[in-house]
Amino acid sequence: MRDIFSKSWKKELAGLRISEDLKKYTTFKIGGPADYFFTAKSKKDIIKAVGVAQDLKLPYYILGGGSNVLVADSGFRGLVIQIANQELECRGREIHCGAGLTLGALIQKSLNQGLAGLEDLSGIPGTVGGAIYGNAGAFGHFIGEKVKTVWVLDPKHSQVKVYTQKECQFGYRESVFKRNHNIILDADFVFEPAPDKKRILKKIERAQAVRARHPYKNCAGSVFKNIPFHGYARLSWLRQIFRQSRGLQSEGSSEKQGERFLKNVPSECVQYGEIKAACLIEKLGLKNKMMGGAAISEQHANFIVNKREAKAKDVLDLIDLVRKKVYKKYRIVLETEIQFVGF
Fold it and tell me: Which of 110, 173, 234, 254 is catalytic?
């Protein structure tokens, strides 16, 4: 591989690494090398690295904590920028932090300050930036609920912009940043005073007990999104599956027709206003299903585990198998949560 970085660019990006193995930076422990790899320890570093990549017309990828990521076996042809700015500052009920801070560190800081609001997310891996990007959540609560302001880099216009909570357009596992590709730099959160410490601790214990039942090594977290299943989301889904099954375009009474498919969805798979993907997969008897070196976890059916030096292809094959079987049985099209890098 030709090194396109001049000495001046390398000086700008101190610590730049060439042909860096990405396995060690992802929780899946899968994938090939990045042509170039840079750890950005400050907001200034992030902006500078993106600018260098643009000047060199070099593809780049923003990497957080490495969870919810599957890297191609061939790696990434370009510059991977690891976000590692971890500033943390309390201002009364507000906390300001860098995108590279771990979500766990933010939650712990809030609790130390006698604040509450994100304890249901205890144990979720990854960084604050990644959590905002995908609106991480658990037990019906999401990080977007506590966001006040997000600072981003708009790489297209080389500008730092500020987003309010409303402008972030948070949805289920969604934010505007998935669509506009702005890069999250840091954020302000607003918490409420913790009225009952025992109650907060119980919520943390509940969250940690659930996480303890999840695989914690060589996996990328939940592979598939749960299906929102209340209010308008329910009607939209019923109409969608009916049209997919019958090829009809008019809505009419399609939600009534779609109700027929609900008979195939076990009632225990509907929790917190969602159809749980893990439950559907488990009901199909797919736990422990293995392809190559990757397997559907015995502990939690919405996790794929790297058991024996798995390749990215093994994971993709399992994902394809699960999606086909779930659709055949339930008429549900599962969407993936994980990001695919280098494909």
Answer: 173
